[in-house]
C-alpha cells in the first residue's frame, strides 16, 4: 500500500478513538453529540455517520464525500457495558495518491491498443474471407464470354462464398447450354427448311431441262405443293413453340382438383382414340381432396403432345394407350404408356431436348420438328415438376409427369 495512504489510515484510527471518547463524555445528550460531530466535520475533512446501538436509526450523517473514501467498517461505542452507538469515520482519498490516474491511463491505452489490433485483424479477415473472393468473382464476370470456356471457380471453403461460387458456375453452365440450344435451334430450322427447298429446286430444274409431259408436270407440282405444306407446318410448329415459351412466362395458375382433371382427360382421349381406331384405358387412385397449383390449359397440352406422338410414331395398328394417375409422396404422378415400338434405350435421355428426333439417319419430312416433348418438359418444369421417359415391359414408351401437390 502507498505509504501516504497507510499513514493517513493510521491517523484516522487515532482520530476515530478520540471522537468515540468525546461521544462517551457527552452521552446521553443527543443534541450535544450532534453539535460536537458537526463541529468536527466542519473543522476537519472527515465524514462521520452515527447509528443507535440497535444499528437501526441513523443519528448523524455528514455525507460530504462523493469520491474514494476509507470507510469500510463500523465501531461500537460501549458505555456502562452496553452498546449505545455505532460509528464510522472516513476521509476522502486523493486518486493521485492511489495511483488511480496512472492506472486508468494505462488501462485506457491498453484497451486502445487492443481495439486497434482487433480492428486490424477484422480488416484482414474481411479481406481474406470476403473482399478477395468477391473481387475474384467480379474479375471472372468480366471474362465470361460464349466463345472461351474457362475453368470453373473453386474454393475449399464450405460457407456462403462456396455457395456463391457454385451458383455462379451453374449460371455460367446454363448460359452455355442455352447458347448451344439456340445454335442447335437455328441449325435445325435451317436444316428442316433447306431439305424441302432443295427438293423443290430439283423439281423445277427437272421441269426446265427435261420438258416433262403434262402428267409428270402435275406430279411435280403436287410434290412441290406437298413440300410447301410441310414447310408451312414447320413454320407453324416453330411459331407454336416460341408462343408456348412466352405463354409459360406469363402463365396464370390456380388450384386444380386432380381427380376431376384426370377424369376429364381420360374421357376426352378414350373417345378420340376410339374414333381413330385405337384404344385407351385409364385408371386413377386420386382422392377428391388432392390439388395442384397449375394452369389447366398447359397441362392439357402436355397430354396432347404425348398422345399425339404415340399416334404418329407408335407404328402399331392395335395401338393401346394407358393413362394412370396417382399420388406419390408430395407429388401427383401421371403416366402415359403405349404398346408401340418405343425408342432405342440409349436415346431416352435425349427425348426432351429441343429439335431432337429419334434415329436421324431415317428421319423423313413427316417425323416433325422434335418440339413436342421439349414443350412438355418446359410445361412440367414451369409447374415445379419434372418429366421422364422409360420403356415399358412390352417395349413401348412410358412418359411420367410429376407435379408437386398444392400445400395450403
Structure description:
By secondary structure, the chain is α+β, with helices and mostly antiparallel strands. 54% of the residues lie in helices and 17% in strands. The chain contains nine helices and eleven strands. The strands form three sheets. It has a five-stranded mixed beta sheet, with helices on one face. A four-stranded antiparallel beta sheet has the order 2-1-4-3, covered by helices on one side. A two-stranded antiparallel sheet has the order 5-7. Helix 5 (160-209) packs antiparallel against helix 6 (214-249) and helix 6 runs parallel beside helix 9. The longest helix is centred in the middle third of the chain and has 50 residues, at 160-209. The chain starts with a helix and ends with a strand.
Low-confidence stretches: 360-366
The secondary-structure element order is HHEEEEHHHHEHEEHEEHEE
Overall average residue pLDDT: 80
The biggest beta sheet reads:
5 strands, mixed
Rg of Cα set: 48 Å
Number of helices: 9
Placed side by side, the strands forming the largest sheet appear as 6-8-9-11-10
The number of distinct β-strands equals 11
Shape: elongated
Class derived from helix and strand content: alpha+beta
End-to-end span in angstroms? 75 Å
- Helix share bin: 40-55%
Beta fraction:
15-25%
